[in-house]
Amino acid sequence: MNASQVTAHLPPGVAVTDPDLLAGYVRDESRFTGAATPLAVLAPRTSEEVAACLRACHAAGVPVVTRGAGTGLSGGANAVEDGVVLSLHRMDAVLDIDPVERLAVVQPGVVTGALRAAVAAQGLFYPPDPGSVASCTVGGNVATNAGGMCCVKYGVTGDFVEALEVVLADGRVLRTGTRTVKGVAGYDLTSLFVGSEGTLGVVTEVTVRLVPAPGPAATLVASFTDLASAGRAVAAISAAGLDASAIEILDATTLSAVDALTRMGIGGAAAMLLVQADAARPGESAQVLGEAAALCETAGAEVAVSEDADEAGLLMEARRQALPALERLAAQRRGDWLLDDVCVPRARVVDLIAAVERVAGETGLVIGVFGHAGDGNLHPTVIFDRADEDSRAAAMRAFDAITAAALELGGTITGEHGVGRLKAGWLTRELDPVALELQRALRRTFDPAGILNPGVAL
Ligand SMILES: Cc1cc2nc3c(=O)[nH]c(=O)nc-3n(C[C@H](O)[C@H](O)[C@H](O)COP(=O)(O)OP(=O)(O)OC[C@H]3O[C@@H](n4cnc5c(N)ncnc54)[C@H](O)[C@@H]3O)c2cc1C
Prior knowledge:
By secondary structure, the chain is an alpha+beta fold.
């Protein structure tokens, strides 16, 4: 296969084949996932150009990997052998913000943080806030049904997607959903594309629901002498039904790594819970955090509460640094990291933490634990020696054992990062055979030639 079989049929300026540029599109941020140098990067500027790209690839039988910002952690945007990468980075316009309907219409390459800032300027709020919010794209968030810090109160990306424009594998364009508050005509194709990881079509326009701006965030920091007690506090806060806007957990390894990176003086505890509340009515957040503080203290924590919104922002930013900080820690040991993304029922967070501690003991590896504890969604991150085959194998064993433990606890193999290439083998262990067969049939219906993101998910 050569690139000109596709590029010859495209509008000028869409295709890039310069090897130096192609090198930047080989893989996303995942580890232990297969990748290849693409034949070309296609960077369309309009939906029509996306359709032209897909028609050309379909005719030539060339695999297409769609890419937002490449911040994915499951290998979903990794290029494949003899394939092209379709990058949406040039389609980055906020097309409309409608304060009456509380909707925004955006192109897929808009950075999530930029959308949040654009709607905030009009007194509105777009809640989804993955840790990568400053660089990931709305299209990538839709394709992975991304979560983030404030899902515990507001929900995940899919809860805010009202309508889509999608280009199918053969270049046909369809629109799903409505701009109305209600709408039940036909099957819910919008939801089908949400979380489809680039396997059913290319999202070229997204209409998202907005909510009124929240109040200033107040924060509770609870420091624990062991991780399991922090897990028990999470279960107690969940059971009490408190209206927290974030419940994040960081273990000792992650805390000291973040502290070394940010110099914020947050290291030292065996585990920390960050609980935020952003109620619009004065006094309500303080009440929520007061109740959460009492529950954390009962679980053995030392607690500090701050109503300073700037401090709340700084603490959340420190939490966002968890993965970069563990990456730095691994690099200092000439090692690397392998991050898991599992989600269990909230009452089983304690059991998941116990399983991770057991796996760390059995493999002798350091495993940092952080994540969206309020959703039962943790990211145990295995640190290993990249140059040592035994250490690499142990890291994979630890990753598998943690993912298996999540399933045994009634959880799922992925809470928010997607199946991608990293967990393609795991889907058969989570889905029943009938669900699996229907999913395969759906994929064949949308993409009979199988050119969209081969090797991802199914
Ligand atoms: C430091 C860090 C923190 C993170 N924190 C979180 C977090 O809190 N929550 C969370 O959910 N994730 C998190 N992630 C993972 C990642 O940021 C998300 O999965 C994000 O949604 C990926 O967006 P992207 O634009 O980078 O997409 P990419 O990585 O480029 O692509 C992701 C997948 O979407 C597909 N895709 C992309 N755009 C389109 C499109 N327009 N149409 C069809 N398919 C498309 C790709 O083919 C691929 O399968 C984090 C990553 C990092 C590096």
